[in-house]
Amino acid sequence: MDSSFDELIARIRWELATGAEAWRVGNAGKARVCARRAVAWLVQALSHGGASPYGSHVGDNLRRLAADESLPEAVRKAAERLRGGARAQWAGGLYSLYPLHDASIILQYFAQRLGIAEALMSILHDLHLCDTPSAPSSSA
């Protein structure tokens, strides 16, 4: 694995670890932001190859992922849920109840395309993000 992938994996690990800690202490908003950023790092890595429709804006990328019919339904649905935040929740819209779990669905799919699935699965296992999602320990 080259150094650019090492840096990418380190960034994803940091975001997921920070998000998992935020979730553990009841800060669902911060967990959601970290989950989105973890996805953003990986999706942006796809765009460096030149053949990706994804750019640098997290919200736009999640919208594109949710609408991309070439992706598996689970990935599209996870992206759609992850797009929704506090405003969507207050307005009765779609939002992720388990943002780190939704991020892991997207990350696993694209990590396979980049050839870093083993490294990503190691992160997910280390942080217990392959387990069934659970509610944060207190309200956000």
Describe this structure in words.
The protein is mainly alpha-helical and 140 residues long. The chain has one domain (3-51, 67-126). Helix content is 67%, strand content 0%. The protein contains 7 helices and no strands. Helix 1 packs antiparallel against helix 2 (28-47), helix 2 (28-47) packs parallel to helix 6 and helix 6 (99-114) packs antiparallel against helix 7. The mean pLDDT is 85.
Sequence of secondary-structure elements: HHHHHHH
Number of helices: 7
Supply the number of structural domains.
Answer: 1
E-strand count: 0
Whole-number mean pLDDT: 85
Shape: globular
Beta-strand content:
under 5%
Helix and strand content put the structural class at mainly alpha
What key phrases describe this protein's structure?
67% helix; single chain; 140 residues; 0% strand; 7 helices; mainly alpha
